[in-house]
Each structure stands twice: as C-alpha cells, then as structure tokens.
Amino acid sequence: MNIVERVDLRNFRCHDEFLLDCPQATTLIVGENGSGKTSVLEAIYLALRGKSFKGVDREILRRGAEFYRAEISLADSKKVIIRYDGSKKSFEIDGKKSLRLPKRERYPVVLFEPDDLYLVGSSPSRRRDYFDELFQQISDLYGAALAKYKKALKQRNDLLKEETVSADDLFSWNVMCAHYGAEVLHRRVENLAKINELLTENYRSIAKNEDTCALHYLGEEVDENTYMQILERNFERDVYLGHSSFGPHRDDYEFVFNDKKADGSASRGEIRSMILALKFIEARILEKEVGKRPVVLLDDIFSELDESRQRHLVDNFKDYQMIITSTAAPDMMAVNKEL
Predict the structure, then answer these.
(1) Is residue 191 scored above 70 in pLDDT?
(2) On the chain, which terminus has fewer CB atoms closer than 10 Å, C or N?
(3) Cα 127 from chain centroid (whole Å)
(4) Residue 27 CB neighbours (<10 A)
(5) Domain 117-291 CATH assignment equals 1.20.1050.90
(6) Backbone angles phi, psi at 178, to 5 degrees
(7) What is the DSSP string of 299-330?
C-alpha cells in the first residue's frame, strides 16, 4: 500500500503550482536540472518528518510570494497541510493545527541523495549529521538526548569563552553534558552494531565477491561518571580552546574495507556498493525498529550509478514505495511525471 498518494504545492521553491499523483508503488519524476524535482521530494520529506532536508522556510518560499502551501495526501484519506506565511510555519492534520509535526504523525523515510555516494570521503560533520538523522528516526529517545546534549553543550561553550569562568561555573552544565552525552554515545555504538551485523552480507549481494566492510565509531563510549571526570580533567584545556574538546560532537565514523580505511583503499565502485548496502540496511532497520515500512526518496542518483547498481537499487527497494527523480528515465522504468 502506498503511503504518499498525492502532492499539491503552491509557491514551493520554484513551483507556482504543482500537482503529482502517486498511484503506483514507484513514481518517477523526470526533468532538467533546476526544474524543481528535488523540491517535490523536499515537500514529501517535510510532511513525513516535520523538517526540510535542504533549508529553512524563507528559502523554500518562492521568490516574490507571500506564502507557501504543501498538501500531501497520505493513505487512509489522511492529509498533511503545511503552511508558511512568511514568518511562521504550521502543520494541519485532519483539521488539527500545530507549529510542529507531532511525533506520532511522523513517518520513516529513506532519503538517497547524490552526495551520499561521497559520504566515505566527506567531512566528519557530514557523517555525524547523516547518522544522527538515521538514529533519530530509529529512536525518539536518541533525538531527545541529542537535542538536550546540544543545548547543554552550547551553554558550556558560551561560558568557556568568558574570561573569568571557573570550574564551579561549569559544574551544572558538565552534569547535563555527561548525562546526555553518555546516552548519545551509547546509542550510537548500539545502532552501529546493528548496521555492522548486515553490512558485509549486503555488500556482497551487490558486489558478488568475498570482500568485507564495516563501520567503526571514532569516539570513546564512556559511562556518565567517566564522562564527568573527563570534562573536569579537561577544564584548563577547554578554557584555553574556548570550547569543549570531548564529546559526541567531536566524534566521527570510519568506513573500513577489507580491514583497511576505505577512503584511500577502496575503489569508487566499491565505495558506491558500500553506500548502497548501507541504504538497504537503513530501510530494513527502520522498518524493524519503527514498525512501519519507510518511504524511499531517491534524488537524481541514477546518473551516478552504473546499470548494474541501478538494478540492485530498484530490486532491493521493490517492497517499498519509491519516489524517484532523474534527468532521464532509466530503461527499466516508465515516466510518471515530466517537469
């Protein structure tokens, strides 16, 4: 059963008016670069997750327009209406309005962008953002802990920039950073273990060889008390630096191929097979942990993949609703919408 059935946009990015029906399990949107294909996926993501994956509301608003409106019709006659009047955004579901999309109304999404294929060699912050978004979909508890950690971290960092800060000034924020930071670290390591259980198997199904791959967490998982001791021990160093030198905000993820760092040892094709395997695992973990089959949004990635990997992508997601954008229709698909 499809989750997304129709997309109706007004003043959304470059779209004055746009209507898309999604009657099939797979919807393919074809158009030139800059024609607004990604904006359609952005609207769907916004309706299912409550936030954009691209920008803020004032950037979404079409130039010269005073408002934008996105109406996404979902299964069981449910509609999510998102309105932005130039200053604030609201969500309306079945006549009930709120400033944020309620957690109970959020739906899992697997988003695949061209930049994801370069995740192995990207910056640590890009990898942290990628896995943070995935882990927040897996567990609301992770999202809550991460948000509280970031809030406490900001307060601690602001104090560290003051000339007369003392260890006592930092104590309460140390407590909060240690509490929520330790939880974030634990859940990252726990979720990464679930991915690693499946990564090599899924990679081999694509590459048809006996290579191995894994994800390593480049950070130290510590309990709350140890975390607190590290913050206290790092006081003088952190004052000198003007920011917190320990914590999940500093950590990274490393892709490993045949027991070597993938960035530098794996070929471009091998890395792309690793990322494909990661995406397949992402969908299955979300389905298992959330109890809902995710919607798969594929944004203009066919031009980045050879025909064999294109077919693996389509075959592995065949049990999910897929909404795909492309500059040209792959041979194995018909076009639902041209822009």
Answers:
(1) yes
(2) N
(3) 10
(4) 22
(5) yes
(6) -65, -40
(7) ES-GGGS-HHHHHHHHHHTTTS-EEEEESS--
Each residue of 39-63: pLDDT tens digit?
999 999 999 999 999 989 999 999 9
3-state secondary structure of 70: strand
The closest of 45, 83, 3, 51 to 93, measured between CA atoms, is 83
Query: For the domain bounded by 1-107+296-339, which CATH number is listed?
Result: 3.40.50.300
- Looking at residue 1, its pLDDT comes to 74
What's the predicted TM-score (pTM) here? 0.93
80 contacts 46 by C-beta, under 8 angstroms = no
- What does the block give as tokens for 105? 């109304």
Residues 6+ apart with CB under 8 A from 126: 115, 119
Kind of pairing between the strands at 26-30 and 337-338: parallel
Task: Indicate the pairing of strand 322-326 with strand 26-30.
Answer: parallel
Answer yes or no: are the C-beta atoms of 309 and 277 closer than 8 Å: no
pLDDT in tens, 56-99: 999 999 999 999 999 999 998 899 999 999 999 999 998 899 99
Between CA 174 and CA 155 the distance in angstroms is: 10
Q: How many residues does the chain have?
A: 339
Eight-state DSSP code of residue 110:
E
Query: For residue 321, which of 62, 48, 94 has the smallest C-alpha distance?
Result: 48
Tell me if residue 80 falls in helix, strand or coil: strand
| Domain-wise residue ranges, the chain | 1-107+296-339, 117-291
Q: What is the mean pLDDT of residues 304-328?
A: 92
Sheet (strand 68-74) strand order = 15-21, 4-12, 68-74, 79-84, 89-93, 96-98
Pairing assessment for the beta strands 337-338 and 15-21 based on DSSP bridges = unpaired
Structure tokens at 59: 């950037």
The first and second tokens of residue 283, run together, are 């969908």
For range 209-219, the mean pLDDT: 97
Sign of CA dihedral 307, 120, 254, 185: negative
